[in-house]
Amino acid sequence: MIIHPDFLWGASTSAFQIEGAAHLEGRADSIWDVFLRTPGQAGHDDNAEVACDHYHRHAEDVALVRALGLNAYRFSIAWPRVLPQGRGAANEAGLAFYDRLIDALLSAEIEPWLCLYHWDLPQALSELGGWQNRDIAGWFADYAALVARRYGDRVKRFATFNEPCVFTLFGYGLGWHAPGIADKTALHKAIHHVNLGHGRAVDVLRRDVAGASIGAIHNRQPCYPATEDPADAAAALRLAAYWNDAFPLPQAFACYPPELADAIAPYVLPGDMAQIARPVDWFGLNHYSPHYVKADTNLIGAGFGPAPASVPRSAIGWPVVPDAFRDTLLDIHRRFHLPIYVLENGTAANDVIDPSGHIRDDDRIAYLAAYTAALEQAIRQGADVRGYFVWSLLDNFEWGAGYSQRFGIVYVDHVSQRRIPKASARWYADMIAAHRTSDDPAGPHNRAEAEG
Ligand code: GCO
Description:
By secondary structure, the chain is of the alpha/beta class. Helices cover about 40% and strands about 15% of the residues. The protein has one domain (about 10-450): Glycosidases (TIM Barrel), CATH 3.20.20.
């Protein structure tokens, strides 16, 4: 069998997208809460005050994960829930919520994968410049220490950042995401300070968590020119530097991609690059589809063009190209020489409840079948892939698209909060069962150590 019996099959979520309880029990505003209050800014005027109410329904959600036979679950900590001002006094009620979640996962024999940062920066820190302020590397390290000391007895898998390329480019460069800044200097500072925060957090996690298994989660995807116009080819290279290389390169090899090095150099102090390039244990990949890039007048000179008409697309228009996923896995394997965990892959679909109460999401099943087949091909061709996590467990708050896009394998009625596993959830559970031997020798605790 190509897929090893200890392979992790999981699902991923993020705090802001599912928790709700946005202002309960001491949680303070994140940049996304504030951003969404500007009418028309994002989210179809939706907000995440309640989201999937996971804060109150985590037991039910963990039971769903268990019922599907998943052996891993990725979540993120909401920084403003545990440190409402981003630093200083911790919020015990917020910390206790993640105790409950982690304990529920462990008792269900599901390995917790904890991501420190999935975009919900405390607003209080944004008012001090957020990722533009170099001090944030230290604030982030202190937050990492709080999390490490509180949960490190039970959690061994830690990711520093989720998709740093997206929240820096969209949040500081193009202004589409919180905090809504569109400024080249802000973007380049943010990139460097996120990288510094990553390296500082890796040190803290190594120091404070025995047997920690640490990585970062990068969004990597081919950037193809949308047309044969040479201007589009040049734009594709520029986008690839920001999208694919601005974080993995410094973190692995202590250098910025040549396209960005001069722009970032003014913010790099002696010792920074060594501080950033701390050894990690794995490469986390989020991947959905390739980009087709067009020249643009925006501040990076590159825009997201439409895919050529011949490329199949999902219900929300994202290109469906499983070969690009296989090639991305092989490329990461060759360049970074690390075990790879796919920590997000999936698709939104036009899910409807049929008269018999079922959601027959055949589009999603077709997508997942094609992409997991590509994953198997990559493993067969030598990529050291050790886990696959579907995005997402639940229909959730999809950032700029609000609740209009459903990415879950479990349907959520956002009024009643009722959860209904979709046909894809059953498909995923059956596929996993078919790949697994009957006894799974590695319990959730000893896998991280076995990897070393
Ligand atoms: C991420 C993603 C998720 C999205 C998913 C679908 O950064 O991890 O943005 O939060 O919901 O990628 O777009």
